[in-house]
Amino acid sequence: MLPVTTGISPPRRARVGSTSNLTRRLGRQAGTPAAIVLAALILIGGISFLLHNRISDEEEGHGLHVVSSKRRSLADDSGGSGSGVAERIQLLAEGAELENDRMAQLEDEQQQEDSDSELSGTLFGAKEGVKLANGQQVAAMAAKTGARNAANSRTRSTQFQKASPSRFAKKLEETRHRVGLQAASRQRYSAIVSSFPSQPEPAVEELSEAEVARRREAIKAAMLHSWRGYEKYAWGQDELCPVSQQGKNSFGGLGATMIDALDTLHMMGFHEEYGRAAEWVRSEMPLNASFDASVFETIIRVVGGMLAAHDMTGDKVMLERAQQVADRILPAYNTTTKIPLNIINLATQQAKNPTWNQRASTLAEFGTHQVEFWRLSQSTGNDTYAELAEGTIRHLHKGWPQQGVMPLFISPTTGNFTARRVSFGALGDSYYEYLLKMWLIKGRQDEMYRSMWERAMDEMINKLVFTSREGLTYVAEFDRSIIKHKFDHLVCFVPGMLALGAHSGAVQGAKAERYMQLAADLTHTCWQMYHRMPSGLSPEYVTFSAQGMKVGAAYNLLRPEALEAMWYMWRLTHDWKYRAWGWQVFQAFEAHCKVEAGYSGIKDVRAATPVPDDTQQSFFLAETLKYLFLLFSDDSAFDMDEWVLNTEAHPLRTTQPKQEEQQHERQQQERKRWWWPPSRSKSGGGLISGSDGSGSIAR
Ligand SMILES: *[C@@H]1O[C@H](CO)[C@@H](O)[C@H](O)[C@H]1NC(C)=O
Ligand SMILES: *[C@@H]1O[C@H](CO)[C@@H](O)[C@H](O)[C@H]1NC(C)=O
Ligand SMILES: *[C@@H]1O[C@H](CO)[C@@H](O)[C@H](O)[C@H]1NC(C)=O
Ligand SMILES: *[C@@H]1O[C@H](CO)[C@@H](O)[C@H](O)[C@H]1NC(C)=O
């Protein structure tokens, strides 16, 4: 079965049609008192179902926060720690908010049919600050859920019939309150971006060597500033709270920022700082903190960070520690299908999955161990790690051989997908990245990964890539046969990945050119997400509708993906606009995120003076500043043939393709890549910092 591909249909028309049917049905029902009662019952059924789920999430929600910030869209306004509960509520709200075409349709019909407005207004209390259109839409959603629920679940409907009227009224009141709050905040967030004053256009010009060096120094100074704050206030903890000037543990207490910063410090030539961090890893890093750690985060940040430090310096302690942490994670793989669970307690080694998605394992989580575990096996000579991690990909390859894009959730018990939601953003993203990067790190020979990647990219391009009326290209999401025109900042990793794939020969000829063009278009959209905001910083996600790009969630967590794209595009085209864009993004971080003790995320990118969220994410040091540094470094700073960056931007050594193959490939590249710039300075394969000579790396 092909749960996704069969489900994605050319979306817009079909969807708008069915929505309008739903609306008409509601409108007709509104005509008779009996129909109103029926609609209300269905609606209440939906609400009780949603409430029930929310309550059980809250009961079992413990531990969810640990898998928060790298890959999830955080739902709460504060930009603080996300949770399954928050995400569920967000999904509900998104369901109401993000169906933009549908929303427009509803609004049109609303003008024509007063009865619709009355119905939704009555049910959802416009008086309480819920905008009519939102109310109507939530009502439509809830009614739809209710109808599905009533049809599918006798149990739940009996439950809801048994509920006493007063309990019922209370629940309705609670839900109304919650939905009201949510709708009000959504409304706040959906200001149309195109109406914002734009930042001044950056001058796109070729810079002198001295100017490039000056900018590189400014970026290094930012790294030092972030690091010093961490050293002073949060030493040994996962993250710095730069405003309250303290530390916090959010990833298992393994010193995530310390380890994430290692290779960036080393690349930038901060050897004393590197030395202090390495000494902490050697003698103080706790391996058994009793904390529900995310398997995924621990692998990409901690295992990946130490493997990179080992690859860059040859320091054996880094490898030993990486292996020790990996060994503590392995029990997560002890499932009938060998699909790993998402959460593990490093002290007790008890593994589990979160409850909010029916204890399924998440695509981006189990699909993002392969590069680290493969490299770990290579470095230690023990195949266990690679075999386990690669086993999950082989499972997908064997079970769904024709399918490229995969749903987000899979049951570790049955090995089957449990939902049909698809995303290249939160929960899905780095699975696709690792298909390509596994092909690269294994010496470009393992056809399984390459073909799976190509299939996924082609499906993405055919079904999920859209261009907005204002000419911005984006990758949409898919959920139960509905396309959601939502674009996470996280998806800005896609252009870098496409460019890397095209450059490295994963696809060739005209197709490589198409991928490269799409990479350029998407990078432009990612840039616009910064450029159009009053603060010059991107929101967490935007949505697209007939009116244009809108802000989805307004917070900024200092995320790296857009800069990652700009760096890859700079490297592969040497178009100066990418340096101009990247510099402007850096200026916005300097203006709005820099505080006395480091850099903080902000709560609302539309504010002239944004409020800080008091978190310096560890990926700011691992990725954001590293990509900026590379953007203003010579090409020789990073050899793309010898190194692959894991999804946390930790560089790992690749296995080189055989000599002849390499030569053949080069010839092909020269023939077929018209955009490929003349080689500027070919390094000897090292990973060294810019032309100022700092931070060269010993083997
Ligand atoms: C972790 O290990 C250390 C020494 O190996 C021990 O003293 C400590 O109690 C352990 N902590 C936990 C939470 O198991
Ligand atoms: C794996 O799981 C089985 C069944 O749950 C259990 O009996 C076994 O001890 C576990 N093995 C490890 C290494 O955790
Ligand atoms: C490889 O590592 C696994 C997991 O730590 C261990 O159980 C196994 O004994 C190791 N194999 C060898 C040959 O060292
Ligand atoms: C997985 O799904 C397939 C196809 O729907 C079904 O035949 C199979 O029984 C399922 N496996 C399990 C273990 O549920």
From TrEMBL:
Which InterPro entries does this one have?
6hp_glycosidase-like_sf (IPR012341), Glyco_hydro_47 (IPR001382), Glycosyl_Hydrolase_47 (IPR050749), Seven-hairpin_glycosidases (IPR036026)
Where composition is biased (Basic and acidic residues), the residues are 658-673
Pathway it works in: Protein modification; protein glycosylation
Task: Cite the Pfam families for this sequence.
Answer: Glyco_hydro_47
Q: Which GO terms describe its cellular component?
A: endoplasmic reticulum; Golgi membrane
List the cysteine pairs that form cystine: C492-C526
Q: Which residues form a coiled coil?
A: 89-116
Catalytic activity line of the entry: N(4)-(alpha-D-Man-(1->2)-alpha-D-Man-(1->2)-alpha-D-Man-(1->3)-[alpha-D-Man-(1->3)-[alpha-D-Man-(1->2)-alpha-D-Man-(1->6)]-alpha-D-Man-(1->6)]-beta-D-Man-(1->4)-beta-D-GlcNAc-(1->4)-beta-D-GlcNAc)-L-asparaginyl-[protein] (N-glucan mannose isomer 8A1,2,3B1,3) + 3 H2O = N(4)-(alpha-D-Man-(1->3)-[alpha-D-Man-(1->3)-[alpha-D-Man-(1->6)]-alpha-D-Man-(1->6)]-beta-D-Man-(1->4)-beta-D-GlcNAc-(1->4)-beta-D-GlcNAc)-L-asparaginyl-[protein] (N-glucan mannose isomer 5A1,2) + 3 beta-D-mannose; N(4)-(alpha-D-Man-(1->2)-alpha-D-Man-(1->2)-alpha-D-Man-(1->3)-[alpha-D-Man-(1->2)-alpha-D-Man-(1->3)-[alpha-D-Man-(1->2)-alpha-D-Man-(1->6)]-alpha-D-Man-(1->6)]-beta-D-Man-(1->4)-beta-D-GlcNAc-(1->4)-beta-D-GlcNAc)-L-asparaginyl-[protein] (N-glucan mannose isomer 9A1,2,3B1,2,3) + 4 H2O = N(4)-(alpha-D-Man-(1->3)-[alpha-D-Man-(1->3)-[alpha-D-Man-(1->6)]-alpha-D-Man-(1->6)]-beta-D-Man-(1->4)-beta-D-GlcNAc-(1->4)-beta-D-GlcNAc)-L-asparaginyl-[protein] (N-glucan mannose isomer 5A1,2) + 4 beta-D-mannose
Composition bias, Low complexity: 689-699
EC numbers for this chain: 3.2.1.-
Q: Which cofactor does it need?
A: Ca(2+)
Which residues bind Ca(2+) per the record?
T647
Q: Any idea which UniProt keywords this protein has?
A: Calcium, Coiled coil, Disulfide bond, Glycoprotein, Glycosidase, Golgi apparatus, Hydrolase, Membrane, Metal-binding, Signal-anchor, Transmembrane, Transmembrane helix
What sections of the protein cross the membrane? Answer: 30-51
Q: In its UniProt entry, what is this protein called?
A: alpha-1,2-Mannosidase
The species this protein belongs to is Chlorella variabilis
